[in-house]
Amino acid sequence: MISTATTESRKPTDMPVFRRRKGNRPRLAPELDDTALGRVRQRLETSWVRGDLDTTVIAQVSRVVEDAGEDWDRKAHRLAVLAAAAGRALPGIWRRHHPRDQGALLLHAWSDLVQDQPDLSDAREACRLAAELVPADPTPYVVHLATLRRERRPHHELSAIWQEIMTRDRWNREAHLQVLGYLSPEECGSAVQLLDLLDSVRGRMPADAPAAALELTAIVRGHQRAMATGGMEAISAGEYWRREQVASVLDQATQDWTRPGFLRHAAALADLNVLAYALVRSGRMADATTALRATTGVVTPWPWNADGDPLERFSQPYERLVALS
After folding, report:
1. Residue 24 gets which letter from DSSP?
2. CA gap 202, 153 in Å, rounded
3. Are 159 and 179 in contact (CB under 8 A)?
4. Which entry of 45, 71, 103, 135 is 20 to 30 Å from 256 by CA?
5. In this model, does residue 14 exceed pLDDT 50?
């Protein structure tokens, strides 16, 4: 409950715990709650600033990728964060020195995506080699799929890669999000194809699967499309959250995801950001408080950046609903 005491009358011992715990303040952390990844990311970014990238940094990057083991969801998360932090040089250096290292191949391919290379054929070749090195790993196919989406390749090419992923990791989070983007009306699909995708997983996907946020992500993207379009769609956007299917998804996610330990995948905090955003936008502030608290103050750029600076847009409801509760 929010205290009614004034700032002047509140004693220091009555101040909310939030005020004393730096770790709970809203902050952008690409690694989310992966502390090992966070240390390597910071070391990598610091080394670029000093201009002293060396083999020690490459060894740390290699180790944190390898340590993910067969947790394919965490491996993809770590590669995505490292690719964003690595720039152009490190992936190329690592691959040249270790051409048969699967991590080096995957980081190079993912970096090509992040760097928005116009031709991703080399990235796909790196994925092919990476798949040969660790046949059970879906990650090379996930990155391959992302390159097909970026270049808007034909559906039959994507379908073949999708099947390779499904035989290895049925509920791969990154793969599902990539397909969701590919099938969107803005890219290579349509509203009907999006619905077909959601219908194909609804009722089959475990509630705690890494891809559990697929439908809620589609809902939030749909809302943001409506707001960006303007006109009558934007005017009626408030009704969007009261639709039966939308409300049902929010109800279930709020009930399950905010329970401690329910979501265990690497990007769980990112999915909790999506839930918190949806609850704030839908005006469900009591539930939003619970979801915001579950994020522990870790902010992801999307979906908050659709409305402005993500840290600022997150902080406003977080400090109003959580910090003083």
Report:
1. G
2. 27
3. no
4. 71
5. no
